[in-house]
């Protein structure tokens, strides 16, 4: 399906980025995986990705039959992104598909929020993704067309208790995606979003996230991680029509590969969700 086409996946060190990189390799793409592979924000309270994580994605991509190039880059830095894409072009001869997926998530009520928590999420999730698009789009134009897929969230489709910075960043990405679809269609470039629900990755498997789920249900977390994890899982099972607590990264990846495909040539300016049915709780 990919027939040697070149995809750049950001946030490729683990989670949704890794699962998608592997799915792209299986579909016959050559894969460049970009990631900061280090602490992106001191305001996060979950474990950062490492260079070993990025290398492991490379191993899995190659095992799936794909060619692999790793690039370490902070997507807040436009000059560094330009250099990273130049390396991809040098290695693979061009870029056909961009999956702009990297992001972070932190929680705090507005009344207690630090400048750092707000700015890091907006700077990485919204501005960083826009940086990637602004660097990549001219390369796709040069190529005569292409695909851009960005990762938003259900939390970019509704308000989020104690998650205003994240919600604003992911809602902003929908505006970016739709505007880019309007501007780039004439060059044969489609632009869409994937909407992951609660996915089983490092970004979600920690006490702060469990506490947020429990508080959203009107209860208070205990602070005991294992107990709060069980309570959050039960709440998710009850909330999601498909009855799972977490959705797997591998459940999101096929949407990304479809949106990158030739078959999706008339799909642009919209979003595709894998949420275990939670999408039924948003308006459209
Ligand atoms: P993840 O496992 O933490 O993967 C995200 C990757 O992006 C990490 O390797 C991370 O590195 C990297 N990254 C962070 N800041 C970066 C930067 N400035 N430049 C380059 N790379 C950077 O999380 P995930 O769950 O797979 O999330 C992937 C995307 O899906 C994110 O945009 C997230 O917001 C979105 N999403 C996730 C869920 C979910 O439930 N998991 C739901 C909806 C949407 P560090 O670890 O060092 O930060």
Automatic annotation (TrEMBL):
Superkingdom, natural source: Bacteria
Biased composition annotated in UniProt, kind: Basic and acidic residues: 224-236
Coiled-coil residue windows: none
Segments of this protein annotated with the region Disordered: 215-236
Family annotation (Gene3D superfamilies): NAD(P)-binding Rossmann-like Domain
GO MF terms held by the record: oxidoreductase activity, acting on the CH-OH group of donors, NAD or NADP as acceptor
Claim: Repeat is one of the keywords in the record: no
Keyword Oxidoreductase recorded: yes
Matches recorded under Pfam families: adh_short (PF00106)
Entry keyword set: Oxidoreductase
Database matches in SUPFAM superfamilies: NAD(P)-binding Rossmann-fold domains (SSF51735)
PANTHER family: 3-OXOACYL-[ACYL-CARRIER-PROTEIN] REDUCTASE, CHLOROPLASTIC, SHORT-CHAIN DEHYDROGENASES/REDUCTASES FAMILY MEMBER
Family: Belongs to the short-chain dehydrogenases/reductases (SDR) family.
Entry protein name: NAD(P)-dependent dehydrogenase (Short-subunit alcohol dehydrogenase family)
Organism name: Salana multivorans
């Amino acid at each position: 399906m990919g027939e040697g086409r070149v995809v750049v996946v950001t946030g490729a060190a683990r989670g949704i980025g890794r699962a998608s990189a592997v799915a792209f390799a299986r579909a016959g793409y050559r894969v460049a995986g970009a990631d900061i592979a280090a602490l992106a924000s001191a305001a996060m309270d979950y474990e950062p990705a490492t260079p070993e994580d990025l290398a492991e994605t490379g191993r899995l991509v190659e095992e799936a039959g794909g060619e692999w190039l790793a690039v370490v880059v902070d997507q807040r830095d436009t000059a560094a992104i330009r250099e990273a894409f130049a390396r991809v072009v040098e290695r693979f001869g061009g870029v056909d598909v961009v999956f702009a997926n990297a992001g972070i998530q932190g929680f705090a009520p507005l009344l207690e929020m630090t400048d750092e928590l707000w700015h890091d999420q907006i700077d990485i999730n919204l501005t960083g993704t826009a940086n990637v698009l602004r660097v990549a789009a001219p390369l796709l134009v040069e190529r005569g067309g292409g695909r851009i897929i960005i990762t938003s969230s259900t939390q970019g489709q509704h308000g989020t208790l104690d998650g205003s910075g994240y919600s604003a960043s992911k809602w902003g990405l929908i505006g970016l995606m739709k505007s880019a679809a309007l501007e780039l269609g004439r060059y044969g470039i489609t632009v869409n979003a994937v909407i992951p629900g609660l996915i089983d990755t490092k970004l979600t498997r920690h006490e702060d996230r469990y506490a947020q789920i429990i508080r959203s249900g009107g209860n208070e977390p205990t602070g005991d991680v294992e107990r709060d994890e069980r309570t959050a899982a039960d709440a998710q099972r009850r909330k999601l029509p498909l009855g799972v607590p977490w959705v797997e990264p591998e459940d999101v990846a096929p949407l990304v590969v479809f949106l990158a495909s030739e078959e999706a040539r008339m799909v642009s300016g919209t979003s595709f969700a894998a949420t275990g049915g939670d999408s039924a709780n948003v308006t459209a």
